[in-house]
Amino acid sequence: MNHLQISTDPTLLGVELPESLTTSPSVSTFLPEEDASTCLLLPGTPSPPLDFTHPLTPSMGNADNCETGAGDDPAAETSSSGSSGIGMVGGCTTGASNLFNNHSDYQHLRKKSGTEENGMHPTGGVMSITLTKDMPGFVHWNWPLIRKCTFFVFLSGIIAMVGIVVAMIATLPKSCNPAVTWYKGSVFYEVFPASFQDTNDDGLGDIRGLIGRAEYFKGLGVGAVRLNSIFPSKHYPDHFQEVTSLTAVDEVLGKVEDLQKFAAVLHERNISLVLDLPIYPFVNHLNPPTIDVDHLPNRTNDDVPTSEFLRLARSVKGGEENVITSVLRFWLAKGGVDGFYIKGLEHFHDDPLLLENIKEWKYTLGGDRVLMVSKQFIDKLAEPIVGEVLNHVDLVDVLLDMTNGTEVTANVIRSAVDGSLLKHTEHAWIHWSVGSVHERRLSSGLSPNATLAATLTQLMLPGTVNIFYGDEIALEEAHDPTGEHTDTQHLHHLTAMAWSGSQNQFTGRGTLPWLPKSASASFHHLDIVLEMIALRKRSPSIYLNAVIKEEQMLPNTDVKSSQNDILVLQRWYPRRNSFACITNFGVKNASLDLTAMFYSGEIVAGTATIRERVYFEKFNVDSLETVIVRLHK
């Protein structure tokens, strides 16, 4: 027994103990304060020998070298032993550095060698575990490499997740406006092809000229280009109404292949193509339907391809061919046309085959192509079939003749908004037109500001808006002071398009064979119209034609006033900004008190200062001016 009451009998321990463990060092070896500080709770217990190494402590290197280095300074050896505790050899830097070796965690796992008898390390006598075949396989793995790979995989996963989140945020829609079909609420641009752009210097526009102006259409922000006269006639363009075929293009304009290319160019810019079909007097009666709509697959959502539909349609019924249906099939087979405005239907308003023909035409086009008719045609229909016809057409063209005064204009708007057109969700949308091939331009006899005022007012109306070519720059009618073109006076409102810049004119020819060349335009109006189109596209209060609530259509347009040449409109939509449109069609400036209608707002479009805060107690509006105000809530 030693003084710790631990047996030192070798036979009991089963191993041969070093002499340093069976005998206690002299207490005199240590100074009194060191002796007391070695074991605070047992002051009489001597410190272990300096060369003692704890069995669980990894090898610290060559013990002999450590002893040699420390033997030169006994005081240092004593101090190190007393302060660092069991198993620490003072002055041995080599052993300390081994702690930071890459494989220091596994130095107790060693393969057995001839010098490692009985589990003793040959250099320091450290207890170690021998590696045998019975050891698990993971012991031999390259754990440092595994840790590095795991770290980089984890880091890559974090970076990937952050990238996905950033991409999702970046692709979120900037607005949450109600979605509508492409032709609902958009802006159409109507073109008379012979007056738009000439490419062969014959003085007449052509389809290749339209192709060259595709970027102009894109810059306007329109959703569709509408060509109102491309078919052969006896003398195009002088008598463009007297068509001789609906399945060809007049040679002055080009070929069918040119039209197909034009459609493809528009589609690349997300713009649709709509054709006017002047069926009367080319068609003087309606034929019986050639297909049985009730026995064909549903085409409401274009779930039947056009080629398959045409095959089925030809095999359902026989009999006399339906001329208009054949025309529609022809252009569908050519591809590229996204809708048709069938003109002249008012001449067949009492035809008993009318309703069945309209059903067939719409079925032929499918759900995503437009079938348009005029308001004049709807007004002539018998009351029992009005609702059925409106269920099978997509757009109803309403002409606004603003030269008749604000009262007449207000009545037309009220009748369209509050009448039969907006009674049901399945009914057609309104298509507003101010100019056309049959109407004189507003700027004739008035200031160009009249065209701008009417165009801005038109763009504030619910539904789809149609801009006649040149109205965006207040293009005036052709001026013929010498009377050289009196025979084509009925075409003077179809004047050649004016382009800004000396190198972008309508034609390189000095004179036009059918119109006076001179026509003025106000190019500075274009920026104002572009701002208004952009405002319309992002504002549901403007482009939507009604508020749909529980399958009911509630008007979102109100004509507040139409007296004294002042037209005041208000547009709104739930949880969106409301807008007021104030137009002065008079010849004098006006100062209005509109506090009974509105309190304050911010000007967002018009010739007035944009972003200016206004109050309606004394609201000034100039002659032939339209001001668009975003109302404050």
Would you write up a description of this structure?
With 633 residues, the chain is α/β, with parallel strands linked by helices. It contains 19 helices and 20 strands. The chain has helices spanning 10-13, 19-22, 32-38, 63-71, 74-84, 93-98, 143-170, 207-212, 214-220, 256-268, 306-314, 323-334, 354-365, 375-380, 383-390, 406-418, 448-458, 525-537, 540-543, and strands at residues 109-111, 129-131, 187-191, 224-227, 272-278, 339-343, 370-374, 395-399, 429-433, 464-468, 547-549, 552-554, 557-561, 566-571, 579-584, 590-592, 600-606, 613-615, 619-621, 625-631. Helix 12 (323-334) packs parallel to helix 13. The longest helix has 28 residues, at 143-170. The relative contact order is 0.07. Mean pLDDT is 80; it is low at 26-32, 34-42, 60-126 and 314-318. Residues 43-87 are annotated as: Disordered. Keywords: Membrane, Signal, Transmembrane, Transmembrane helix. Residues 190-503 form the Glycosyl hydrolase family 13 catalytic domain. Pfam families: Alpha-amylase.
Radius of gyration: 46 Å
Structural class: alpha/beta
Largest sheet: 8 strands, parallel, barrel
- Main sheet strand line-up: 3-4-5-6-7-8-9-10
| N-to-C CA distance | 98 Å
Unreliable stretches covering 5 or more consecutive residues: 26-32, 34-42, 60-126, 314-318
Count of distinct strands: 20
Sheet-strand content, in percent, reads 5-15%
Helix-residue proportion: 25-40%
The chain-level mean pLDDT equals 80
Shape: globular
| Oligomer class | single chain
Task: Count up the helices.
Answer: 19
